[in-house]
From TrEMBL, chain A:
It comes from the Bacteria. Residues 37-60 are annotated as: Disordered. This is N-acetylglucosamine transport system substrate-binding protein. Residues 37-57 have a biased composition (Low complexity). Belongs to the bacterial solute-binding protein 1 family.
Automatic annotation (TrEMBL), chain B:
The chain crosses the membrane at residues 7-30, 73-94, 115-136, 164-184, 227-245, 272-294. It comes from Nonomuraea pusilla. The keyword Transmembrane helix applies. Keywords: Cell membrane, Membrane, Transmembrane, Transmembrane helix, Transport. This is N-acetylglucosamine transport system permease protein. GO terms for biological process: transmembrane transport. It is found in: Cell membrane.
TrEMBL record, chain C:
This is N-acetylglucosamine transport system permease protein. The lineage of its organism: Bacteria, Bacillati, Actinomycetota, Actinomycetes, Streptosporangiales. One of its GO terms (biological process) is transmembrane transport. It comes from Nonomuraea pusilla. The keyword Nuclease does not apply. Belongs to the binding-protein-dependent transport system permease family. It is found in: Cell membrane.
Length: 481, 304, 289
């Protein structure tokens, strides 16, 4: 199997070292500021800016004795990165300070009442199925403005602002109602993931067109392997993402931008219909309905057993399954094959996005400490520690330098490199309009199971989007790119 | 003096329970009723009243009606299935052995059966949910489908076929409940004087006759108590459905019930006001059920 | 009695044998339905992921005990079990004490407002608990009882009162008046009459509603989820199970999940088997009154 670009491991490591994947050629697009100079604001910001107060080691004027409370989503990344890396950094900066650390999967159930009652933790990793509605929190003034953080001197180099040390997409995705309120901490690559070693041993190559894709499906079928599967329980949103990204590949990122902006008829776009139709056919011909009843880990275990070839997911999968991965399994990313001969994005386009939300409570006991905690997370040491603990990349440039990254992440790096400017954007209605997203995760199972037609799916989604648009109780967000 | 002592006693005995109940149960519910008239989103510090808007919206909410329909099914099937199975099993336990030994001792090993049948009842719903997720798994790794595969049958999507899912969930509820009612009914049957059966058996009455003409009529009260318990259980089902079928009442809302909808509307979509309105609707439904049932049972002696 | 059997015609005896066999068959089927899933869970704790997602009917390849160790240390089953036992025993005791006191007064004393108070309690059976979750949080918070076992115990008691009172009031009403009247004439106070005469008489009813409350509170999931959210070392078992079940999803530790499940199931079954005689007779006689 040949790798696009054919760069050596050494070169690649160096490149990652410099860019942490995200400041390379693709990064400019990733930033959603289509200009090539996305990361090129005056980078050596004068250390006299407002945020950088008298003491660059403590720019927010943290009271070193005030305790700090941190709540981490105990999901795929675990909470060791916070407990063993980020929190020690904070206690090192302020010796003797106490940190209350909590890990939970029920972020919303546990924290929502606390926000209303005013007893709020300082730092919240808002993630998982019960993540809180950040727009609603923002409307009540619960979220601290992070622009002070982005303008503060970096923990590694006081002559640089934090905003210049992170991949530019962070800044774009930080906004709610035009204000910088959310820090996205991780970078992930989403497309189809497969077992490179299986392909090698069978002598198969990655399908570049839909015809090659289905042909491989026939071949695999003879070997008793499914071409494709997604988890119908807990993880149907993987497939929702997949059809959305495929639609973006067919019709360009504007398809997703329109959907996010609740543009009339956005879900009925031709590209969306084509994408859904193509995947429904794959499911009907090469899928297995049993997977409608399996959740993500169960499906992932099946893939480790080589029972399915392609799985729509992000680069975190490698770490998630590290414990169970047999030696003859090597994760690698495969771009979505060309659906039509005139796709807006050529073969090789992959989705690269930032994720994993962190917010600081504005009305907590120690908002300065919260900002400082995030600043330390964004230090090289903090970010490197995260990558070491989770085998996932952060938004901090160059933080993965010198780390021995696993093969799946390397393949993602190569894929991003090969994709160049053709980076598929993220769909933000997931965070903005949870009801629409939930409806989507329900309806995607319905259409994939063949209980409604792709047209009907699009119509249902459009109907829900129209309802949200009309619902005055839902705060609306917009994006331009 | 005695009057005073009586009142002092009454007040003394009621003070703690009434206080606890008023503080922890009534006051939150009063607030919930109040919230049903607002558009509170769970975060705002001020309440905006919207009158009966939430209830008007409810009338046109497809999902709300689907949840109601599922409640109807549950309310009908859960008690009937549980009671029928429990009656059948306890009849076998108590009378299946015939008139052998010192009377109606039941089949050999009936103690053992009764103990085993009660097992599911002592398991936490969370445990049962996780367990049956494995039992119902949609491929041969599921216990049921693994068995089917032995007979060469295709695996069945117990929890993923919209036509099947609710029934699969009900089956688990029945599975868990039956033991409790076997014990309940067994005790009832044991209390029926043995002479009745012996006399009837001597007259040549078959087992079915014995059951329908003696056991069932004499057990009527106990069965009705069971009906009330199960009816109340049918209005909940939240924890089990959430674990088994997911928090959207998958697939396609085929297993959704009002508690699921309330949970989702309040905690996922932050529409507390609307969710509270659903809760209020559920409250009136349960009250209606309880009043109707109690009116027709012997508990009407309590003057309901 | 043995003589009676001999009087049955031979044909009848043969039929009884066949039917007896069929009875056993039906009972055995239900026994299998109950036992097999539990047995499967137990066996699954010795499997690895591959076996768990392979053929369901296969036995584990070897006796792997590591998942039990993991579940014990990581899922803190022991700690949660202890917490649950503490909370449930206190709250059940409280429920029974206050519930029987209120039920007794409501069932056997005439006073102004009796009906109102009775319905006030009974209406609580119709409230969906999660509807109150949000407001309840604030109530408990204001009392400073959030994240305390005491708070949870009081809330459990309050939410168990409606059914307990409903059930016990009906029960107390059926008790004969003569004994209580005799005691009063002998000069016993109302309180003494209740504790020394009425409670012992109501024992069967009390036992069966105790069983009901223990089971209900043992199973409670929503209330602790909200009221004990913050301090993981105070969690009860259901929270622990939900937590490890979610974790199993993220960490793909399915054997650990089944080991944790087995760990929670086994002690409960043992306790049940030890007390089953009392539970069953209590349940039976209680329900019959």
């Amino acid at each position: 199997m040949t790798h696009p670009g054919e760069i050596t491991r050494r070169q690649l490591l160096r490149r990652i070292g410099i860019t942490a994947f995200a400041a390379g050629p693709g990064a400019a697009l990733l930033s959603a500021c289509a200009t090539s100079g996305a990361g090129s604001e005056p980078s050596a910001a004068p250390s006299t800016s407002v945020a950088a107060s008298s003491d660059p080691a403590n720019p927010f004027g943290v009271d070193p004795k005030k305790p700090l409370e941190v709540v981490i989503f105990g999901g795929g990344y675990g909470d060791a990165y916070a407990k063993d890396v980020h929190e020690p950094l904070y206690t090192k900066a302020f010796p003797g300070v106490t940190i209350k650390h909590t890990a939970t999967q029920q972020i919303g159930t546990q924290l929502r009442p606390r926000f209303v009652s005013g007893d709020v933790p300082d730092v919240v990793n808002n993630s998982g199925p019960e993540a809180m509605d950040l727009a609603a929190l923002a409307a009540e003034g619960h979220l601290a403005d992070l622009s002070a953080l982005f303008d503060a001197p970096s923990a590694d180099d006081p002559s640089r602002k934090v905003r210049d040390t992170v991949t530019p997409a962070v800044l774009d995705n930080a906004k709610i109602n035009g204000k910088d309120l959310v820090l996205n901490y991780t970078v992930s690559h989403r497309a189809l993931w497969y077992n490179a070693k299986l392909f090698e041993s069978k002598g198969w190559s990655l399908p570049k067109t839909w015809a090659e894709f289905t042909a491989l499906g026939e071949t695999a079928k003879k070997e008793g392997i499914l071409l494709f599967a997604y988890p119908g329980q807990k993880g149907p949103y993987y497939q929702l993402w997949n059809v959305l990204y495929t639609a973006a590949k067919i019709g360009g990122n504007q398809v997703l931008i329109d959907i996010d902006n609740l543009v009339d008829g956005a879900w009925n776009a031709d590209a969306m219909k084509k994408s859904v139709t193509a995947w429904v056919e794959i499911q009907a011909k090469y899928g297995d309905k049993a997977y409608f009843g399996l959740d993500h880990t169960q499906t992932q275990v099946k893939q480790l057993q080589n029972k399915l070839l392609f799985y729509p997911v992000g680069s975190w999968i490698e770490n998630e399954m590290a414990k169970d991965k047999p030696l003859d399994f090597e994760y690698a990313i495969a771009p979505i094959p060309d659906v039509t001969s005139s796709d807006a994005m050529p073969y090789g386009a992959v989705q690269v996005g930032v994720g994993e939300n962190f917010v600081v409570a504005a009305k907590g006991r120690n908002p300065q400490g919260g900002l400082e905690y995030l600043r330390l997370m964004l230090s090289k040491e903090g970010a490197k520690g995260f990558t070491q603990k989770t085998q996932n990349l952060t938004v901090v440039n160059g933080a993965a330098e010198g780390l021995d990254l696993p093969p799946g992440l390397m393949s993602a790096a190569r894929a991003q490199d090969a994709a160049g400017q053709n980076i598929i954007t993220d769909a933000r209605f997931e965070g903005w309009y949870k009801e629409l997203f939930d409806h989507g995760t329900e309806q995607i199972n319905v259409v994939m199971a063949g209980r409604v037609t792709p047209e009907e799916f699009c119509a249902r989604m459009q109907k829900k989007a129209d309802e949200i648009k009309k619902d005055s109780s839902v705060a609306k967000q917009t994006r331009s790119q | 003096m005695e009057r005073l002592r009586r009142y002092g006693f009454v007040i003394g005995f009621l003070a703690v329970p009434v206080t606890l109940y008023a503080v922890f149960v009534i006051s939150p519910y009063v607030q919930a009723f109040q919230l049903s008239l607002t558009d509170w989103n769970g975060y705002r510090s001020k309440l905006t009243y919207v009158g009966l808007d939430n209830f008007a919206k409810l009338v046109h909410d497809e999902v709300f009606w689907r949840a109601l329909r599922n409640h109807g099914v549950l309310l009908l099937v859960l008690p009937v299935a549980t009671i029928v199975i429990a009656l059948f099993l306890s009849y076998l336990l108590n009378l299946g052995g015939g008139t052998r030994g010192d009377g109606m001792r039941g089949v050999w090993g009936s103690r053992f059966y009764r103990v085993v049948f009660f097992f599911p009842q002592v398991l936490a719903v969370a445990v049962v949910g996780v367990l049956f997720k494995a039992v119902y798994r949609p491929d041969e790794s599921g216990v049921v489908n693994g068995l089917l595969a032995r007979f060469g049958a295709e695996p069945v999507g117990w929890l993923t076929e919209p036509g099947l899912a609710l029934w699969s969930v009900i089956a688990v509820m029945v599975w868990q409940a039956v033991g409790f009612y076997v014990v309940l009914f067994s005790a009832g049957m044991a209390a029926i004087p043995k002479d009745y059966f012996e006399a009837a058996a001597l007259d040549g009455a078959g087992r079915a006759r014995l059951f329908f003409s003696i056991t069932l009529p004499l057990l009527r009260d106990t069965v009705q108590v069971g009906w009330v318990y199960l009816g109340i259980a049918a209005f909940d089902g939240f924890a089990l459905i959430q674990v088994l079928a997911g928090d959207k009442g998958e697939p396609d809302g085929a297993t959704t019930v009002l508690p699921i909808q309330i949970w989702k509307t309040a905690f996922t979509y932050n529409k507390y006001g609307y969710a509270s309105a659903m809760g209020v609707a559920l409250f009136f439904l349960t009250v209606t059920f309880a009043v109707l049932t109690l009116r027709t049972t012997r508990r009407e002696r309590i003057e309901l | 009695m043995t003589a009676r059997r001999d009087r049955l015609p031979a044909r009848g005896r043969a039929r009884a044998g066949v039917l007896g066999g069929l009875s056993h068959l039906a009972l055995a089927v239900w026994t299998a339905l109950v036992v097999l899933p539990l047995l499967w869970t137990f066996l699954a704790s010795f499997k690895n992921n591959t076996e768990i997602f392979g053929d369901a009917l296969q036995l584990p390849g070897e006796l792997r005990l590591d998942s039990w160790g993991r579940a014990w240390s990581k899922a803190h089953i022991g700690q949660y079990m202890l917490n649950t036992v503490i909370v449930v025993s206190l709250s059940t005791a409280g429920t029974m004490l206050f519930g029987s006191m209120a039920a007794y007064v409501l069932a056997r004393y005439r006073f102004v407002g009796n009906r109102v108070v009775y319905y006030f309690f009974v209406a609580g059976m119709a409230f969906p608990v999660f509807l109150a979750l949000g407001p309840l949080f604030f109530v408990v918070n204001q009392l400073g009882l959030l994240n305390t076992h005491l708070g949870l115990v009081l809330v459990y008691i309050a939410y168990s009162l409606p059914f307990t009172i409903f059930f016990l009031a009906a029960f107390f009403r059926t008790l004969p008046d003569a004994v209580a009247e005799a005691a009063m004439i002998d000069g016993a106070s109302h309180t003494r009459t209740f504790f020394q005469i009425m409670v012992p008489m109501a024992r069967p009813g009390l036992v069966s509603i105790t069983v009901f409350n223990v089971l209900g509170q043992w199973n409670q999931y929503l209330l602790p989820l909200v009221l004990l959210a913050r301090d993981q070392d105070k969690w009860v078992l259901t929270q622990g199970i939900a937590n490890i079940s979610t974790l199993a999803g993220y960490e793909a530790d399915w054997p650990g999940l089944f080991a944790a499940l087995s760990m929670t199931i086994l002690p409960v079954l043992v306790v049940y088997v030890i007390f089953q005689r009392q539970i069953q007779s209590g349940l039976g006689s209680g329900a019959l009154k």
